[in-house]
Design a protein that fits this description.
Length: about 220
């Protein structure tokens, strides 16, 4: 039973999400503000965090950054509207996905399961790509022998891109492969994750070697 830390200040929304997620088999730890949420995070080490952006005290963006600094715990942000500033800010702070409230529990359950699947891979190869070593079986990445700490979403993105070196994958293809979005999804998820991945992999993120942009099409891994 996966443990979900729900940080949401609205009592009605918090209670409704708790009930719905528990019916779908999740163990939910609720918190009404960011400070309480961070304390529960340290005490329980949940499998995933559901994080409202508009919180009293420490806002959701800062909570997201602090959670991300502790390790690769998946984060889905909750936003009351699909506001560009909220979404982009949350993704840049380290969120893996987002949902717009109100959201049906079955939809949220599907998104949670998709995020939790991202650390899994069926490959068994240990690959070298220049200074990078990708161990698909162990879900580990090293650069010059040093471990690279990636979130499950960042890892899955790297695994999908490196599976077909030199081949261009569109943003929509990556949404389907990495985020399990089989509809016309939000390409900002892809772009923000690529930005974070480059910051961890590249010596010069502005001149990437591993994850390259093919303007107007998408992204590819490594040189052609």
């Amino acid at each position: 039973m996966p443990t979900v830390l729900l940080i949401e200040d609205d009592p009605a929304v918090r209670e409704g999400l708790c009930l719905g997620l528990r019916r779908h088999g999740h163990d939910v730890e609720p918190a009404a503000d960011g400070e309480r949420g961070l304390r529960l995070l340290a005490a329980r080490r949940p499998d995933l965090v559901l994080l409202d952006l508009m919180l009293p005290g420490i806002d959701g963006f800062e909570v997201c950054r602090r959670i991300r600094a502790t390790g690769p715990i998946p984060i889905i942000m909750l936003t009351a509207r699909g506001d560009d500033i909220d979404v982009v800010g949350g993704l840049e702070a380290g969120a893996d996905d987002y949902v717009v409230k109100p959201v049906q529990p079955r939809v949220l359950d599907a998104r949670i399961k998709a995020v939790l699947r991202r650390g899994a891979t069926t490959g068994h190869d240990r690959e070298r790509h220049g200074a990078l070593t990708i161990d698909r079986a162990a879900c580990e990445v090293t650069k010059n022998g040093e471990p690279v700490r990636l979130t499950p979403t960042e890892l899955r993105l790297l695994l999908e891109l490196s599976r077909v070196p030199g081949r261009v994958l569109s943003r929509q293809q990556l949404l389907e492969l990495v985020w399990d979005h089989d509809y016309l999804g939000d390409s900002r998820l892809v772009d923000a994750c690529v930005q974070r991945l480059r910051a961890k992999l590249e010596d010069q993120p502005a001149a990437p070697v591993y994850v390259r942009t093919v303007r107007g099409f998408g992204y590819r891994f490594g040189p052609l």
